[in-house]
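Q: Entry one of two.
A:
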Amino acid sequence: MVVDAEERLPMLLASNASLLDEWRTFYKLKQDPRITPIGKWLRRTSLDELPQFWNVLRGDMSIVGPRPLTKKEVDEYLKEKALKILKLRPGLTSLWAISGRNEISFDKRIALEEQYVDTRSLWLDASVIARTFVAILTLRGAF
């Protein structure tokens, strides 16, 4: 991302109604002008996730679990659902990541995260891990 990405966002959204609608649905932008060309490539190939393995080794994250959320997402959008989702360590991959990632609305993402919390099992984790490799190789849902 560019250095002042957070400061640019309000101006960007205020100047373009379609971007504002996209942001309200996904809390992401498909063609985000704040992302550098190398950043776009890293995100598209999911290589930007590799440093999170360090967090898994430290015990701060798990391989499978709800994807990490920003403080703003928790405070402004999740509210009462936050406690349920945040009771598990965040995961390197998730149901959301294998179900279309950035093609899925934020509300659907949260529903998938809740579904994982409610139904987690060793078998589900193994399935998510296997399907993650497919999603990465096919670039499914990647911007």
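Q: Entry two of two.
A:
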Amino acid sequence: MTAGVFPPAAPLHEQSWREFSVNWEVDVKVAFHFSKAALTLPLPAGSSIILISSVQRSQFTHFRRYAGAKRTQIFIVNYAQKESDRLKLGIRFMHSHRE
């Protein structure tokens, strides 16, 4: 699974919440819904879900916000793995990132 948008580069005080939260509304939302669907279908035991994300190491605030959303995707994958284990579904959730 992969999805993403780049946040607006405008200073914080010049953005609306809608502009500011674009990464949460796209990047985090897709990880949440995809992981939830994989746990509730459920997929056959032995299935793998791989989240591909990038971790920006930029000093610019808007890229830190992007990286925060991507890190939250990784949190969701880790949480989904724990749920798969707890429910004994045999589904493997993994994340792969590129710098």
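A: Comment on entry two: Residues 16 and 88 are 43 Å apart (CA to CA). Helices lie at 17-20, 22-40, 61-86.
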